[in-house]
Model the fold of this input.
Amino acid sequence: MSAPAPDRDPVTGRLTTGHEWNGIKELGTPVPRIVFIGLTLGALYLIVWTILMPAWPGINSYTRGLLGIDQRTSVEARVALARLERAEWTQRIETEPLATLASDPQVMNLVKGYGKTLFGDNCQACHGGKGVGNSGFPNISQAPLMWGDDLDTIHETIRVGINAAHPETRFSQMLAFGRDGMLGRSDILAVTDYLLALGSGASVDDMTHGAEVFAFNCASCHGDNARGSVDFGAPDLVDDHWIYGGYRQAVFNSIFTGRAGHMPSWEGRLSKADLRILALYVGWLRENQP
Amino acid sequence: MSSLTRDERALSSLLFLVLTGFGFAFAIGGRGDPLAAHGWIMILFGLAGLFMMLRVWSAPNPPQSSYDEYFDAPTKAGIILALVWGVIGMAVGAWVALLLAYPDFNLAGPWTSFGRIRPIHTSGVIFGFGGNALIATSFHVLQRTSRARIPDQFSPWFVLVGYNLFCVLAASGYVLGITQSKEYAEPEWYADILLVLVWVAYFLIYIRTLMRRKEPHIYVANWYYMAFILVVAMLHIVNNLAVPISLTQAKSYSLFSGVQDAMTQWWYGHNAVAFFLTAGFLGMMYYYLPKRAERPIFSYRLSIISFWGITFMYMWAGSHHLHYTALPHWVQTLGMVFSVVLLIPSWASAGNALLTLNGAWHKVRDDAVLRFMMLAAIFYAITTLEGSFMAIRPVNSLSHYTDWTIGHVHAGALGWVAMITFGSLYALVPWMWKKSQLYSKALVEVHFWLALSGTLVYVFAMWNSGVIQGLMWRTYDESGTLTYSFLESLVAMHPYYVARTIGGTLFLLGAIVALYNVLMTIRMVERTSENVAPDLPATAPQAVPAGE
Ligand code: HEM
Ligand code: HEM
Done:
């Protein structure tokens, strides 16, 4: 209330208005010109741009803008254009046999680039970089494949998945011999040691019990020599690739509680061409084992 | 607490009883639901409050002379709360940063997974740190620039205590998995109702005190604080309109769905940035910066014009968070043009602050407290320039979903919000506790350099990683296919995430130094000598009518 008389600010030489709040005086500096210029330019930009582009709402509709641009139509046009450009090679990939494609260096160049990206976005989280696997997820670039490793088979595995939701999915299961009471602990231990010995190349002549258990219970799926069978999708148990681990406890667990890995099916999620590129890429990885 | 009158103590006890009652209702009715845990928190809070009331129950009414002094106790409490929440919120921020670089640092399974501690960070720093600082400083600025005391003791305490209960419910809820999944509006319906009550009381304090003011005009800082209070109330109520699935369950469903829900959320989200993280802190800046520099605001008129510019234009800008989405194109156009024009009042504010320092630059050099405020104004200018740029649709198509946004956020949050807060609190603490000076000027200096280097490391790391990320996601090769997988972009981010963790930790250390320095100031520094001009409200019986 006690408005002191206006005084002059020593730094700027301007008058204060006499208003003061707890020691902060009101300096009468006018608003700099540049601010008004900025506001005017801003307003011009606002008006022009909203006339050109879809902008102002009405009751039922909105102003379309003089340029006639709309994000929906422009994105549709760009997608169509991109599809057209890609059609050159997607057509070939969709129609020619995989084996032919695999021997075409131009196609394989594309596979090495785009296939890698596709693999990184869709497969790497489970199968690891370059497909070398993780615990629970098989090495698909170096290990023998459970379902077979010609390109068409790989393509089929990717398309329908394993134990997946696809109506034609591949189906495979390792039975829970221990948990379901088909074999006792000692039998399982015997066959575990038998398998580990087979794998390490040691002599199995004196492991008759293990060999017997294997022949009776396991050979039907894993094959007489335990080298796996593509008919059942049962893995090779002699090589040193293991899905769930090759140490004694892990092998014991596989036999005791069984296993049923889930490989998703990709048909419907990836385009036809993408599926085929992935098959070619997995094939290429297997040939050029990293 | 003994500053409350007997009636106010009775009223407070009643409210604590009501809170305890609701707590029991939730704890019992909500058995088997996470709500029960919140019931128990409310019971604890209510009983602790009751206990405190009972301890001072028989104390006499405060002397009449206490009405001739400003009411600063809630401000003091708010300062400490802000600093404590700041340390907690930033420590969790550093943890979130560590998790992004090394995901294995999740210590307690689902409870401390990324998705749950990230909102603890955002709410902890925005609401806990920022909110308490705004409440504390607004009470101070309001009284000093009106030369009037807050009319009663109860309502500021109600605001502060209620608000912090809200913050506790928010943070503990996230750990338990309670969330509405709306960013910055995660707390569920009952916490939202509590905040509405608190906010109404907050606004009334403002109105009632301003009606008692002894200055003919309302100082500009109060305009900003009031816009902050009023608009946040509006945003909060609209965005949180929801129907709980039952009164004994935490979960609720929003009234909005689909693109309307998204637009409501980002209308809220952006204006939370505008009115919580900007307008409120501009209010802070317009008082403490001229005070500390002992200079008048360069152009008072400009500060008013900027106020109306910011208030008017921010309201339109929310849709720039939803560019290239299902939101109709016309809404995006409006959001974009208003965001671009918003640069002018924003830069006018920053320029006004910096020009205020003319004639005081030697103080900026010597006084780290003022330097904090100066730096805040510079970062405010950087952040708003960046924001207006990012709001342009083609630019946003690169920056959106990337760490560039995170860099922008923290240029604003660390550089602007936190720096102006620290500067203001350093200025305020000796005034509030009537101390001759801060405990250690050297520690303020240490804090300044920790904060500046931390911010620079953080922001540059995120700018780099954001742009790299954005480019990797849109690089096509000649066959028209993407060159990089998402995983490759993650791998490329890793070094920046490590750098961000380091930068954030520097900033956190600074905040810890600040808390220590403030506590030591309160405990160790001698009181101001008596012959300093007293800091008292005008006791003149009658206010001059506004508009004079
Ligand atoms: C010690 C300092 C800090 C560190 C280490 C830190 C770290 C982080 C991290 C790691 C994120 C998550 C980013 C992501 O999800 O990619 C984040 C988000 C966020 N932080 Fe901070 N922060 C700090 C300080 C602050 C402060 C002081 C504020 C506000 C005043 C703040 C406000 C935010 C906000 C609003 C987000 C969400 C951003 C968005 O969703 O776009 N931070 N912070
Ligand atoms: C002229 C002023 C500003 C404009 C036009 C602006 C614009 C923007 C834009 C375009 C985005 C990115 C939206 C997206 O792509 O998702 C954004 C995000 C954000 N900005 Fe600003 N900004 C401004 C000032 C500020 C200031 C001063 C702060 C203070 C801390 C701030 C805090 C944030 C936050 C927290 C986000 C992240 C929101 C989220 O996604 O969670 N902005 N802003």
Q: What stands out?
A: Confidence is low (pLDDT under 50) at residues 540-548 of chain B. The first strand of chain B starts at residue 242 and ends at 244. Residues B 90, 93-94, 96-97, 100, 118, 121-122, 125-126, 130, 183, 405-406, 409-410, 413-414, 417-418, 504, 507-508 surround protoporphyrin IX containing FE (ligand 1) (CB under 6 Å).
